[in-house]
Specification:
Layout: E1 2-6, E2 11-12, E3 17-25, E4 41-48, H1 56-71, E5 77-83, E6 87-95, H2 99-107, H3 117-129, E7 137-144, H4 155-168, E8 170-177, H5 183-193, E9 194-200, H6 205-218, E10 220-230, E11 234-236, E12 242-243, E13 247-250, E14 253-254, E15 259-267, E16 274-285, E17 291-299, E18 302-303, H7 305-309, H8 315-338, H9 342-353, H10 360-374, H11 378-393, H12 402-412, H13 434-448, H14 453-465, H15 475-484, H16 494-500, H17 516-519, H18 521-527, H19 535-545, H20 551-569, H21 577-590, E19 596-597, E20 607-608, H22 610-623, H23 628-635, H24 641-655, H25 659-666, H26 670-688, H27 695-707
Helix pairs in contact: 1-2, 1-6, 4-5, 5-11, 8-9, 8-10, 8-11, 9-10, 10-11, 10-12, 13-14, 13-18, 13-26, 13-27, 14-15, 14-18, 15-16, 19-20, 20-21, 20-26, 21-24, 22-24, 23-24, 24-25, 24-26, 25-26
């Protein structure tokens, strides 16, 4: 889990050499695989309810706290403290058993008064202490939008007390809301408390950042992480927390997110590979609370200085150097803004963004800072930079860009068979009414019928994610539930699927070119309701790839998800060409240029990309004026990705404006009902909302809704 990655693969034997070396800590995978139970969480929420939090801020704060309550289990504990001119313990530390009662208490919070920040934090720490257990994940999350102006306001004694509790096992995460909070105090409290620090620039970000904090907690395998180097002269490249003598304080160890720090080391000449540089890593293992220690010595072959100079530079070290330079550019831009030189700040970031080898996630951070600078707000610029640099200094990804980091890693590492596209870095531009999303899920279940693959997948998905984007913690249990689901007509071999469950993240599905992943897009879209950003697409990509490791399936699933979402945003059923236009718009950007064979007898011997097939058969059907029923007979090949997708698209093109007729046609053939009924039903529900269902469809939806 601890490794040295040097810029070149050898030291010099004839002279001293300067080596840029990245130290990477890869969090260990917890034992237990898919059946692992996560470590209990002891969460204390400390919320500012001063007068400045009135209105939208308070409403979204309640939503974020509600998300936390809903995401916890009976094995977890929660407490809720609010502060203004006084401090109130709204919920004393308690197991998360009666969630409805907790949510009712949350709804009673009203904003008024001043800001007794430290007394509020103290009360939260006292509540958290009641559930403090060795090995548990104990976290206090402080949210405020203002300056501490009652009680203790001096940062030094405040941070000293925060650190005292950190030594006892309680970490503090701080979230600064808006433009007026005390940025230096909140960052210092987070650093003293070993937690994260967020700048909540817009109200819409709040729920997302609370969600990220909970994701990180649920996937944490080690806390109080410290790295120490010794034996040779070195200096860190970029901002760090700590120092050479006492070691560098890093972020928690979170599954799937390595920690990285870059150092410049001076290695003296010698004949032996050993350099004399040693690294030691210490952390507390989540669950047991036991101290773990890992040591590693830096050694490489020795060559001449000339030979070393001719060696290529390691791409990962080069990438980390570009990230360090981007961090320096952020700092320079912020300093320029402090001096009132907005033009210089903008120029610095534009130059940094021209670095071609800078990862997309880092470019996203620079663009976000650039946007704030262009607004001329030096205060907001400083706060955003502080939050970004805080994560960087702990060796972790910037939490606000964690989804971009995931996406970039998947695409660059070829973990998912998709081409990168600009829209993936953004969320949808509009949000549909909730009734449309409910109609989408209702149409999915009603179209597929009772006790079908679509129903099982939808139900298990919603149960497990619980309205949140659990990127990491629930993957194992989700895969296990899919493998064991009692499906009448499985499209994939469950035996093959079960054998792959424990192979790791994004490697647990069957290699199947069918439309099963497309069916699952509807419930996954529902969980992303009102959650924008790159996480919108990251979650859908993950959902499609969990069970179908296939390029055509992945590309068609994203295109289908985009179509469903846009249908839900339409004021009325769109014209026939709308379906293909919206679907192909995404498909063209993301599909790989890989050939697939058609299975329909009419197209025996045809091979090409999904886009080629759809353009060919749809254009042929339109040109010949063929009805949907005639075309379905030509294309019949069950749920195979090419023919199934074309069938669903053409049915919507011909009859999407006629909900009842379209549903009858989708369910006309028993052998197609499970997949075609589900796909078309979801699309019809997106367009028409909860249109009048009847017969088996109404029964299936009513029974399904009652189980949610």
């Amino acid at each position: 889990m601890l490794e040295f990655i040097p810029d070149r693969t050898a030291f010099c034997h004839d002279q001293s050499c300067t080596v840029d070396v990245m130290v990477r800590i890869t969090p260990p995978r917890p034992p237990g695989g898919a059946e692992r139970r996560r470590v209990p969480i002891n969460l204390a929420l400390v919320i500012d309810r001063s007068g400045s939090m009135q209105g939208e801020k308070m409403e979204l704060t309640r939503q974020a706290a509600a998300l936390a309550i809903k995401s916890l289990t009976r094995e977890d504990r929660i407490s809720l403290v609010t502060f203004a001119s006084d401090v109130e313990t709204v919920v004393a530390s308690t197991p998360v058993v009666d969630k409805q009662q907790l949510l009712r208490r949350l709804d009673q919070i009203q904003a008024y008064g001043s800001t007794a920040l430290f007394p509020g934090w103290q009360a939260g720490a006292d509540q958290a202490s009641l559930g403090l257990r060795k090995g548990n994940l104990n976290r206090l999350v402080l949210l405020t939008d203002g300056q501490a102006n009652l009680g203790q306001t001096n940062p030094d004694p405040i941070c000293s007390e925060v650190n005292n509790w950190f030594q006892k096992g309680l970490q503090t995460t701080t979230m600064g809301f808006g433009r007026d909070y005390q940025e230096s105090l909140l960052r210092a409290m987070a650093a003293s408390g070993g937690g994260n620090h967020f700048y909540v620039e817009t109200p819409e970000q709040l729920v997302r950042y609370v969600e990220l904090e909970l994701d990180g907690l649920a996937a944490t395998v080690g806390t109080r992480v410290r790295l120490k180097l010794e034996g040779l002269p070195f200096e860190p490249l970029g901002e760090v927390q700590g120092d050479a003598e006492n070691g560098y304080r890093l972020a928690d160890l979170t599954v799937e997110f390595p920690l990285e720090l870059l150092f410049r080391v001076t290695v003296p000449p010698a004949a032996t590979p050993q350099s004399g540089l040693k690294a030691s890593l210490e952390y507390l293992a989540s669950g047991s609370g036991e101290l773990q220690r890992v040591e590693l010595e830096f050694a490489q072959p020795r060559v001449s200085a000339q030979e070393r100079a001719e060696m290529p530079v390691d791409a990962e070290v080069e990438r980390k150097l570009h990230q360090a330079m981007a961090a320096m550019a952020r700092e320079e831009a912020v300093q320029a803004m402090k001096k009132g030189d907005q033009a210089a700040a903008t120029r610095i970031l534009r130059q940094a963004l021209q670095t071609q080898k800078l990862p997309e996630a880092d470019q996203a951070q620079l663009r976000q800072l650039q946007k704030t600078i262009e607004q001329g707000d030096a205060n907001a610029t400083q706060k955003l930079h502080s939050a970004q640099s805080y994560s960087y200094s702990r060796g972790s990804v910037v939490l606000g860009a964690v989804e971009e980091q995931l996406l970039e890693g998947w695409l660059a590492g070829d973990l998912v068979p998709l081409n990168s596209a600009p829209f993936m870095r953004e969320g949808p531009k509009s949000t549909p009414e909730l009734s449309r999303m409910q109609g989408m899920l209702g149409g999915l279940v009603a179209g597929a019928g009772e006790d079908t693959q679509a129903t099982v997948l939808s139900l298990e998905t919603l149960k497990l994610v619980n309205g949140s984007n659990r990127f990491l913690p629930w993957i194992g249990s989700f895969c296990k539930s899919l493998a064991e689901a009692p499906v009448r007509h499985p499209w994939n071999s469950h035996r093959e699927f079960q054998l792959r469950v424990n192979e790791g993240f994004l490697a647990c599905g069957a290699r199947a070119a069918d439309c099963g992943a497309m069916v699952r897009m509807a419930p996954l879209l529902l969980t992303r309701y009102k959650r924008g950003g790159a996480g919108f697409w990251v979650f859908l990509i993950m959902g499609s790839h969990l069970t179908h490791i296939d390029a055509a399936s992945a590309a068609c699933s994203l295109a289908w998800a985009n179509l469903l979402w846009e249908l839900a945003c339409q004021p009325a059923p769109p014209p026939g060409q709308f379906y293909w236009e919206r679907f192909s718009e995404v498909l063209r950007q993301v599909q790989r240029n890989l050939p697939y064979a058609a299975l329909a007898p009419r197209y025996d011997g045809w091979r090409g990309t999904p886009l080629n097939f759809f353009e060919m058969v749809l254009e042929e059907a339109r040109a010949n004026g063929r009805s949907f029923e005639e075309s379905r007979d030509d294309w019949t090949a069950g749920p195979h990705i090419l023919e199934a997708t074309a069938t669903a698209l053409y049915l919507l093109e011909c009859h999407g404006h006629q909900a009842q007729l379209a549903m009858r046609l989708a369910q006309a053939k028993e052998e197609d009902r499970e997949w075609l009924g589900a796909l078309v039903g979801a699309a019809l529900g997106s367009m028409h909302g909860q249109w009048p269902l009847s017969g088996d469809g109404a029964t299936a939806w009513n029974e399904f809704a009652g189980r949610l």
